[in-house]
Each structure stands twice: as structure tokens, then as C-alpha cells.
């Protein structure tokens, strides 16, 4: 039996055998809204819904926060790897001049989005790299990407450059994840306009949460000015459950952003740092580590698996 929350419109698969009553109250596990499911005019105690079956429609996902050091690149890499292990064809887009995602995947001297944009061909095929990991591809970055801002900042519709290129190839992939720099400017705006969903990684620290507000404002502007259907959710990263301040900030975020936070939390884990040293995704470095399991859980949460 498929039912829909009246408040956040999340769909759930409800086992009809859970009660013999013909009408009863249920509580949405996403936004905590309590509403009635009718069979006949009777009610019973609230039931917590857990079996969410909301379909995933957001193929292109930007990962953004204007605050640095919140695990944007780590999230892009390890979420993409996790999706690829779930048999999805995944394209990672390194849209950051620092090229950390590209370096993490073992590439250094390679063509980038810039070379394609200013070449004789409109195809991204010449720059897309098939990585050594199954079901995973990459559009690399390099230092020439810095020239994109200089050449396009004053042009009309410069914010649509990435979207227009990805539209030509998006049907070849199940998911496209875009890594962005720690700022709200040309690269981030292009990534947000190109995407239908934004993941905002954030530590439970004041400055990181301030970055959430900035991305949230930009998303709302894009929805109004560009007339684009785009949504966002906050991903807590590098979480320390033993830290009192972290727990306080987390509680405040949950209260402020109801329905806008992932259930999955990425905890602070030394295995992440170790995996970065050897240029490996954490799940290939230690598949039983906390962060590896949590990124896999995040992928399942996003994909509804």
C-alpha cells in the first residue's frame, strides 16, 4: 500500500498487515508529520513509517558549501564510488580549479572542461576518463580552469555553460556528481544551475553552518530567477559524537532544517585521511571502516535502495 505524507510529499510503502483497523494515524519518518490513512472513520495510535520508497529523480547532483574543509571532495568521491558499487553508471565532474578530485583519482596532467570548451569540438567525450573503478567516469580539472572565469564572467548566460554541455551526455549515465570550490561564484553557480539537487556537506561547527545559509539562499534565487526545480539536503560530515559542541549544533540543525537533513551521518574517521594519502576511495582502502559503510548507506538513502 503506497501512501504519501501530506506535508513533505514523501511516498512510503506501508504494509497493510501492520493493523486490521480501517483508518489509523501514521508518523512520517522524514518530517515527523502525523496524518491519517483512511479505510473507514476509525483511528488508532501513531505508527512510525520506515519503509520509504520515494523515487529518486535527481540525476545531476552538485556538492557545495562555501566553507572549505567540510569534506566536499571526499563526499563526491566516496558517494560516487558507493553508487558505482550499487551498479550505477556514475560520472564525477571536477569543477574546482584546485583539482583535488582529479588528483584523488590518480590524474595529474590531463585535459579538462576548459580544453573542450575552447576546442573545435562540442563533445565532452574527448575529456571524459574511464577510471580504474567499475562504473565510474571522470571529467577532470586542471589549472586552465581558472581561465574560465576570466573569459566568461561578463558574458550573458555564462551560468549555463556546464548545464548545456552535460545535457549532451547525461543520458549515458545514471548519476552525475559535481564537485565545487569553497565559494559562491562562477564555478559553483554553474554547478547549481546544472543540477536538480544539491548536497550541502557541513561539520557541526558555526562557520560550516553559516555556509549552509549561503547555499540555501543561492538555491532559492536559482529557483526564482532561472525557474528551475532544484532542491537540497544537508549532510553532516566529520561528526564527533563525543564532542558536546557538535551534539548541540547537530540538534539545532535538525530543529532548523526539518526534512532537509540526510538520515545518514558521516562520522570523523581516521581511515578517510589514510585513504587520501594512498589515493584510494575509503571503501577500497578499508571496506569495513565506519566512513566506508556510512557513505554506502548515504548512497542507498539517496537512491532509495
Set down the secondary structure blueprint.
Blueprint: E1 2-4, E2 11-13, E3 23-27, E4 34-38, E5 47-48, E6 60-63, H1 72-85, E7 90-94, H2 100-104, H3 113-117, E8 129-130, E9 136-139, H4 146-152, H5 161-166, E10 175-179, H6 186-194, E11 197-202, H7 206-225, E12 231-236, H8 244-256, H9 270-277, H10 282-285, H11 290-303
Parallel strand pairs: 3-5, 6-10, 6-11, 7-9, 7-10, 11-12
Antiparallel strand pairs: 1-2, 3-4, 8-9
Helix pairs in contact: 1-11
In the predicted model, the low-confidence regions spanning at least 5 consecutive residues are 40-57
Helix content: 25-40%
Computed Rg: 21 Å
Strand line-up across the major sheet: 8-9-7-10-6-11-12
CATH architecture field of the largest domain = 3-Layer(aba) Sandwich
- Taken from the alpha-carbon principal axes, the silhouette is globular
Count of individual beta strands: 12
CATH class call of the largest domain: Alpha Beta
Q: CATH topology of the largest domain, what is it called?
A: Rossmann fold
Please report which band the strand proportion falls in: under 5%, 5-15%, 15-25%, 25-35%, 35-45% or over 45%: 15-25%
Spatial gap, N to C terminus = 18 Å
H/E series: EEEEEEHEHHEEHHEHEHEHHHH
What is the makeup of the main sheet? Answer: 7 strands, mixed
CATH superfamily heading of the largest domain: P-loop containing nucleotide triphosphate hydrolases
Broad structural category: alpha/beta
| Residue-averaged pLDDT | 85
SS summary, helix count: 11
- Kindly give the count of domains: 2
Amino acid at each position: 500500500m503506497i501512501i504519501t505524507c501530506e506535508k513533505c510529499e514523501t511516498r512510503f510503502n506501508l504494509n497493510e498487515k501492520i493493523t486490521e483497523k480501517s483508518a489509523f494515524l501514521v508518523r512520517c519518518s522524514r518530517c515527523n508529520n502525523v496524518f491519517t490513512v483512511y479505510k473507514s472513520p476509525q483511528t488508532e495510535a501513531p505508527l512510525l513509517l520506515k519503509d520509504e520508497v520515494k523515487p529518486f529523480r535527481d540525476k545531476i547532483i552538485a556538492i557545495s558549501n562555501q566553507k572549505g574543509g567540510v569534506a566536499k571532495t571526499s563526499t563526491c568521491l566516496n558517494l560516487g564510488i558507493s553508487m558505482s558499487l550499487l551498479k550505477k553508471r556514475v560520472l564525477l565532474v571536477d569543477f574546482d580549479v584546485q583539482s583535488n578530485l582529479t588528483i584523488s583519482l590518480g590524474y595529474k596532467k590531463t585535459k579538462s572542461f576548459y580544453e573542450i570548451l575552447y576546442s573545435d569540438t562540442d563533445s565532452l567525450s574527448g575529456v571524459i576518463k574511464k577510471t580504474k573503478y567499475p562504473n565510474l567516469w571522470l571529467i577532470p580539472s586542471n589549472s586552465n580552469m581558472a581561465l574560465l572565469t576570466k573569459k566568461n564572467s561578463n558574458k550573458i548566460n555564462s551560468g549555463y555553460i556546464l548545464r548545456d554541455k552535460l545535457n549532451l551526455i547525461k543520458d549515458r549515465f545514471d548519476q552525475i556528481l559535481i564537485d565545487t570550490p569553497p565559494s559562491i561564484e562562477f564555478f559553483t553557480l554553474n554547478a547549481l544551475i546544472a543540477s536538480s539537487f544539491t548536497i550541502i556537506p557541513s561539520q557541526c561547527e558555526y562557520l560550516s553552518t553559516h555556509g549552509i545559509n549561503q547555499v540555501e539562499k543561492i538555491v532559492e534565487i536559482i529557483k526564482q530567477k532561472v525557474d528551475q526545480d532544484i532542491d537540497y539536503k544537508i549532510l553532516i560530515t566529520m561528526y564527533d559524537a563525543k564532542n558536546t559542541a557538535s551534539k548541540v549544533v547537530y540538534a539545532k540543525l535538525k530543529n532548523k532544517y526539518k526534512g532537509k537533513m540526510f538520515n545518514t551521518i558521516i562520522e570523523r574517521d581516521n581511515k578517510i585521511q589514510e585513504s587520501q594519502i594512498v589515493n584510494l576511495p575509503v571503501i577500497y582502502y578499508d571496506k569495513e571502516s565506519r566512513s566506508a559503510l556510512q557513505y554506502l548507506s548515504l548512497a542507498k538513502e539517496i537512491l532509495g535502495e
